Amino acid sequence: xxxxxxxxxxxxxxxxxxxxxxxxxxxxxxxxxxxxxxxxxxxxxxxxxxxxxxxxxxxxxxxxxxxxxxxxxxxxxxxxxxxxxxxxxxxxxxxxxxxxxxxxxxxxxxxxxxxxxxxxxxxxxxxxxxxxxxxxxxxxxxxxxxxxxxxxxxxxxxxxxxx
Length: 163
Fold this sequence. Notes:
Blueprint: E1 7-12, E2 18-19, E3 33-37, E4 78-80, H1 82-87, E5 94-96, H2 107-120, E6 126-129, H3 133-141, E7 146-149
Parallel strand pairs: 6-7
Antiparallel strand pairs: 1-2, 1-3, 4-5
């Protein structure tokens, strides 16, 4: 699996034990795995971001994979919302326009990375539970079968966010 220099693997959110990028599901402790990066491995210069693509891949050095599947997701504009700013008694307010992503959803960023990971792992199938947008987004990136199913009920338990 070809990963960027900064990507250090996946870390268990309960034990801090590290796995490589091929780990899937939960850790041996049953906890969520979180990507770990060495931010010092990225050599940023003043022109690094300015010269990058108008997408999330402008930050490719801080993402996991060297050769991403992409449809130019991310890089969506901030749109000024002066009326809402006035209502909220703010000097200014901007709203991120995620509808300009390839499939019109914020999920395109995450699915571009997830489907790239599946390709890097030589997956035969990408399967996910989705009420709609995620399945549509995953299908737009894949060059192999996608199985997106709508769950019959919401998940019983949500993952705990690490703070």
